[in-house]
């Protein structure tokens, strides 16, 4: 079954073929469930003019924010960008092209892309700037706009466990956008905490089947906390 073995020996090998101008799908929500080692390797490679699709763009100095610092992102397709001052600066200066997308619409664009559905109608965004230039139709009493699906050249994903064949389990809220990204990449790369032999994972617990995964790599994860909330004397304090 060697041909089904998706394991690669290094983070460098995991991203073979990534080049300038590609569309990159990145899993995660804030700093939860981000493929931080793959992002660091993309920074090291210094590939340029990337279109990056992700819920948000990390924070200053970590996650996708590292690629912003290195001026590697040409266009960002995201639903939330409020935690990154450098993102704001590059947007306002015209250095970074941004396509803001409602969060549920972004999720459905990726799901549709993974399912081979080219576009879909949604009521979200009708009558707002989101609808500008898009086809609209009325279904019953609801006006809808046509949204194209999203696919990427590479999808980078953070999993918890995977077997040799690329079947992946995510841990708790790290499930977020990762399963959607995994289905919509032409090449899907998953970094995981642990790789286990075939037959080890309970099939009922697998979130992403190996049919969607091309490469898996095991590597340590820092797991930074974006906002740490402490409790002192009955009062909550954000640190």
Automatic annotation (TrEMBL):
Database matches in Pfam families: CoA_trans
InterPro entries according to UniProt: 3-oxoacid_CoA-transf_A, CoA_trans_fam_I, CoA_transf_BS, NagB/RpiA_transferase-like
Keyword Transferase: yes
Keywords linked to the UniProt accession: Transferase
Listed PANTHER family: ACETATE COA-TRANSFERASE SUBUNIT ALPHA (PTHR13707:SF60), KETOACID-COENZYME A TRANSFERASE (PTHR13707)
GO molecular function: transferase activity
PROSITE patterns noted in UniProt: COA_TRANSF_1
Full protein name: CoA transferase subunit A
Ligase found in the keyword field: no
Species in which this protein is naturally found: Leclercia barmai
Membership in a protein family: Belongs to the 3-oxoacid CoA-transferase subunit A family.
């Amino acid at each position: 079954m060697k041909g089904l073995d998706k394991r690669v020996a290094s983070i460098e090998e995991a991203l073979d073929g990534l080049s300038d101008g590609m569309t990159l799908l990145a899993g995660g929500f804030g700093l939860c469930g981000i493929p931080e080692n793959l992002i660091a390797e993309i920074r090291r490679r210094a590939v340029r003019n990337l279109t990056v699709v992700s819920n948000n763009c990390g924070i200053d100095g970590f996650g996708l924010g590292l690629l912003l610092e290195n001026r590697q992102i040409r266009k960002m397709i995201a639903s939330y960008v409020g935690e990154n001052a450098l993102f704001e600066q590059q947007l306002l200066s015209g250095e970074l092209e941004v396509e803001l997308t409602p969060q549920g619409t972004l999720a459905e664009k990726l799901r549709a892309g993974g399912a081979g559905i080219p576009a879909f109608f949604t009521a979200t965004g009708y009558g707002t700037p989101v609808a500008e230039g898009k086809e609209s139709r009325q279904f019953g009493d609801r006006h809808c706009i046509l949204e194209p699906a999203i696919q990427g050249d590479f999808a980078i994903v953070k999993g918890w466990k995977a077997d040799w064949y690329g079947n992946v389990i995510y841990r708790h809220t790290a499930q977020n956008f990762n399963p959607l990204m995994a289905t919509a990449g032409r090449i899907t790369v998953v970094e995981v905490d642990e790789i286990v032999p075939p037959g080890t994972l309970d099939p009922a617990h697998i979130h992403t089947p190996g049919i969607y995964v091309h490469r898996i790599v095991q590597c340590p994860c820092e797991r930074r906390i974006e906002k740490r909330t402490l409790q002192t004397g009955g009062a909550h304090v954000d640190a």
